[in-house]
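Good morning N.,

You mentioned wanting to compare the apo and holo forms, so I went ahead and generated the holo version with pyridoxal-5'-phosphate. This is what I fed in:
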Amino acid sequence: MSAELSTAELSDRYVIPTYGRFKVSLARGAGCRVWDEEGREYLDFGAGIAVTSLGHCHPRVVARMREQLGVLVHTSNLYYTRPQAELAKRLVEIVGAPGKIFFCNSGAEANEALYKLTRKFGNECNGFAHASGGTSNPDAPVRRGIVSMLGSFHGRTLGGIAATGQDKVKKGFEPAVEGFSHTAFNDTEALRDAAEAPGLAAILLEPIQGEGGIHAARPEFLREARALCDRHSLLLLFDEVQCGLGRSGDWNGWDSLAPDVKPDAVSWAKGIAGGFPLGAVWVSARPVQMRSGEIKPLCDLLGPGSHGTTFGGTPLICAGALEVLAVIEEEHLLENARVQGRRAVASLEALASPWIRDVRGVGLLLGIELSADFAAQGGLPPGKTPSLFLVERLHEAGLLTIPSGTHTIRWLPPLTVTAAEVDEAVGILSRVLASLPRS
Ligand SMILES: *Cc1c(COP(=O)(O)O)cnc(C)c1O
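and this is what came out, ligand included:
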C-alpha cells in the first residue's frame, strides 16, 4: 500500500512536520557524497549538520561497529563496559585537564546536564574552594542563574530553548524555564555587568556560534569570561556541540581561539560518533566547597541517583566514537580541517562575487554571508529567505549545504574532505551565483 506513495508523501503523511524538509530523499552515502532515490549524486557539505565527521560509511568505523554489534550492544548504565570507560578517558585527554565524563544521547541532553550541574553547584556549594581552604557557610545565598549569549543555540528541550538566545525557538512554548538571562556575544563590558547579577551561577557560551550564523568568540572575550568566573565563583560552561572535536581544526573549538582558557564544563554531541547519536559532558575536577564545608571535585557533584539516562554511552556507540576519534588522530584530520578550511575561504574570496558579503569561519565550520541586496534580485520568490533560496539552487546543482539565518549558508563538510572536493563545491557555487538574474 505504502509503495504507491513516494518517500516524501509517506513521510509528510506520518511524520510530525517539525522540519520544513527539502525535496530530496536520500538513499545512500559514501565519503563526502550522497545519492538520492533517483540515483542523483550530491557533494555533501552539510554532513548532516556537522555530524558525519568522517563522511558516510567510513570503512574503519563500519568495521569496528560491525564487530561490536556482534559482541555487546547495550547494557544500561547499571554496569561497567570497556568501550565507555575508554571513551571517557580519551575525552578527558582531549580537554587536557583533570575531570570526568557523563554520557547521553544528544546535544540538548548534554546541555541539560550542564544546567543540572549548575543547579547543584548553586544550591549546594559556596563556590570554588581555594588552596587556603575557607570556611563553611550554610547560609550563603542560593545561586541558580545562567547567563548565555544572544544569537546562541543550545537545543530544543525546555531548558535548551530557555538558554538559547533566539526568540524564534521559544515562541508558543511559554512559560520559559526560569534562571536564564542573555547578554551580547563578544561584548566584554556587557558580560562584566551580567556577571555581577545577584544569583548568577554560570556563564554558558558556544566558542564558535553555529546556528547563529558562524560567529567566533574573540579571544579577549573568552579570557574575560574565565576571569569573571574565577572572580565571582561562576562556572564557565562551553557548548562545543557543533564546534568541538575537530570541526574547528583543533580538538576543542576554544583551542582555535584562546587555548589558554579552560572551561569548568563542556558539552559535545554532533560529530562525536560520526553519525551515531551520542552526547557527552566533561566536568572539571576543580575543587568546590560544599555548604557543609566539605571540599569535593566539581565532577563528583552529580552523584549516584542525581542524573541519568537509559541509553547514554552504550558499548556499541562508544566503540564507534573511539574509532572516529582514532581516525581523526591517525589520518591527521585536524590539520586537514585547517588546510581545507583555508583553501575554501581563499577560493570563495577569490570569486569576488557581488552576491557574497562575507566569508568567515574556523577550520571546517564556515559561513558564507550573502549580500544585503540579494533579496532584491530577480528569481527570489516572496517570503523565501536568500539563504533558503540559494541552498535550493545549490541542491539542483548537486551540492548539499545548510542555511544559517536569513542570509548565511554554512559549509560543514566531513573532516576528510579533499582539496578536489573543496574546489568542486566552490565551482558549483560559482556557477550558481553567476546564473542568478541581476535586476
Ligand atoms: C545542534 C546543537 C545543539 C543541540 O543538539 P541536538 O543534538 O540537536 O540536541 C546544542 N548546541 C549547539 C551549539 C548545537 O549546534
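DSSP finds twelve helices and 20 strands in the chain.

Happy to go through it together on a call whenever suits you.

Best,
F.
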